[in-house]
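Incident log, structure service

09:12 report received: a user says their structure output differs between two submissions of the same chain.
09:20 pulled the input from the user's history:
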Amino acid sequence: MKSTKKLTIILAVVIVAVVAGAMLYVYHRFAPQGEAGEKHITITIRYDDGAEKTHELDTEAQYLLEALESVAELNGEETAQGYTLYGIDGVEADFTTSSAYWAVYVNDGYGAYSLDKQPVSDGDQFVLAYETF
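09:34 re-ran on a clean worker, output below:
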């Protein structure tokens, strides 16, 4: 009886490891990939008071976080889900106290990835907008 229980536990651990490995492979295989080489992009920042700053830049950044760091001072942190943005140029968006957040738009559509996973391609237009819920 004990050997059957032990065998069942070992089999369960092996199955979990195989499934986890498969999920990790799928994630890395289909995750957004940055584009190598120089690109011309536009980054617009819309602050809480309605003011805007637009930056046209040539960059070799493969992901938006690196490009954004070259034109703005960021306050954020790396999390398990990706880079969490709290503030840009001293303007903080605190969802817990004011229902405010920094929305990311990519080529007129809502961004689907965190800043560190959002690929940058030649001609892309990014908008980071202070918004409230």
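09:41 both user submissions now match this output. Likely a transient worker issue. Closing.
09:42 reviewer note: Strands lie at 39-46, 52-59, 74-79, 82-88, 91-92, 100-106, 109-110, 125-132. DSSP finds three helices and eight strands in the chain.
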